[in-house]
Amino acid sequence: MSEPALLLVGHGSRSAAGVAAYWEFADVLRSRASELHVGCGFIELSEPDLDTAIDGLVGAGATSVVAVPLVLLGAGHLKSDGPAALARGRQRHPGVSFTYARDLGIHPLVLGVAEERVREAAGEGVDAVVVVSRGSSDPDANSDLYKVGRLLADSRGLGLVEPAFVSLAPPDVPAALERCRRLGAQRIAVVPYFLFTGVLVDRIHEQAAAWAASHPEVSVVVGPELGPDPRIADLVLERYDEAVRGEARMNCDCCIYRVALPGYESRVGAPVAVHSHQHSHSH
Description:
CATH architecture of the largest domain: 3-Layer(aba) Sandwich
Order of helices and strands: EHEHEHEHEHEHEHEHH
CATH topology of the largest domain: Rossmann fold
CATH class of the largest domain: Alpha Beta
Strand content: 15-25%
Shape: globular
Structural class: alpha/beta
Number of domains: 2
Helix content: 40-55%
Strand order of the largest sheet: 2-1-3-4
């Protein structure tokens, strides 16, 4: 292999539809970069796991592997599970180079896809948009959703844009819908800020429907998640290229393990917890 292999790091899901969307995305990625050897693996809940995917790439002849995490907002899985898998890979394959790219993050390509999904949901127009992320125990990741909301609202003519989380952090979907209602919105679009469908995306639909049923005076429509879009594939390749050039930098500006954020001072310098067991209830 003349180019480093690309390891596409998926989260994994108990939802067959969510896993299928990941594999569809992998096909889109391969079609955009047919010269690259692309391996696929999941952090949890789905097969193959990252160790198996790494061993497969090395077995196929890779001497250099760049892992790109399919993560919109970098939280625990990005900061701990991915690097841990690469560390194990280095132990098993001491002659192979392993590099970790940064998360997809807040990027014009992602924001463009998100805006398109909002407009698909809005149809004739809405007064407010609720953008719903996974939710995390990581305040840095949660705060990034607010930046996403602001960027989607700024000069885009979408009306009020309200962030919400489906698990682990407030405000939840009903609270965000209620805030929009109290601010005068009569037509609200709810958009999952997720790459692929899954158990949590299904939960967003259920929560929005339940709130709408008890507020018949408000129109609520739920839009699609981002999905296996070619623009996201192009961003994965951009993150791969950054890592190959040695320019990948993890966002540590507001990391609770490095920076004494108010309320999280005790976490500075602490070992990074592997979050799989904490998150498993919410998938």
